């Protein structure tokens, strides 16, 4: 099972366990909602801790942050953002000109 699938499965499991325990313990809807929310967040944090420990043991020397690759990707995304921004500005100018020519 992939690690992210395990985390997602555990979060859903924590939600339902919290919901069942809250339904058994509380009578008011606010307390049931709060208990479910606390249980889900608790399971999420515990599973993230276990997942990070697992990743630390399985890939101890692997670099998680490659600065050169990250900078290359950010430069690429920045260029794409500027290009799309120019396209949107051209579309807005077309719409503005179209509205003035119709009137």
Quick tags:
2 domains; mainly alpha; 86% helix; 3 helices; 0% strand; 103 residues
Strand proportion, as a percent range, falls in under 5%
Largest sheet: none
C-alpha Rg (nearest Å): 25 Å
General form: flat
Helix and strand run: HHH
Characterization of this structure:
By secondary structure, the chain is an all-alpha fold. It has two domains: 1-63; 65-103. 86% of the residues lie in helices and 0% in strands. The chain contains three helices and no strands. It has helices spanning 3-25, 29-58, 67-102. The longest helix has 36 residues, at 67-102. The radius of gyration is 25 Å and the shape is flat. The N and C termini lie far apart (62 Å). 4% of the residues are buried. The chain crosses the membrane at residues 7-26, 32-57. Keywords: Membrane, Transmembrane, Transmembrane helix. It comes from Helicobacter gastrofelis. This is Motility integral membrane protein.
